[in-house]
Write a structure and sequence with these properties.
5 strands, binds zinc ion, binds guanosine-5'-monophosphate
Amino acid sequence: MRDDNCIFCKIANGDIPSDTIYEDEEFRVILDLSPASKGHALILPKTHAANLFELDDEICAKVLILAKKIGKAMQTALCCDGINIVQNNGEAAGQTVMHFHVHIIPRYNGEKQIVAWEPKQSIPEEQREIVEKIKTALI
Ligand code: 5GP
Ligand code: ZN
């Protein structure tokens, strides 16, 4: 299904032109308009899902395989030294466009880290509590 108010639905289905590097029946892969690095691309499913948790399982299963294919092509074509695969869900996680997408970000030696966090001290008791809570939610 498409969402008529969603810009990525329009781009993915070709209603709005984009720098497309790959397309098949289910996906379009485009260059990011405001790239974090040279070659920064986005995998867009053609059907609308706001985030990973709304995504159809069949599409979900294909996404990482496609990310691998695109990443390999980037290694050959752009001679990048590494690749970040990033996928944000929800505003708190930095998602700005509410149509599921995967960032494929080629990385080059000497450039600043862009996917980084400040490691904090873990608290054993809290860790055990988290393990129990999540294990319960998985049942
Ligand atoms: P998010 O923060 O939601 O994970 O990532 C959204 C990404 O989409 C950003 O990197 C942003 O630059 C990119 N973006 C937003 N609008 C457009 C657009 O109209 N065209 C393209 N190619 N990229 C877009
Ligand atoms: Zn959409």
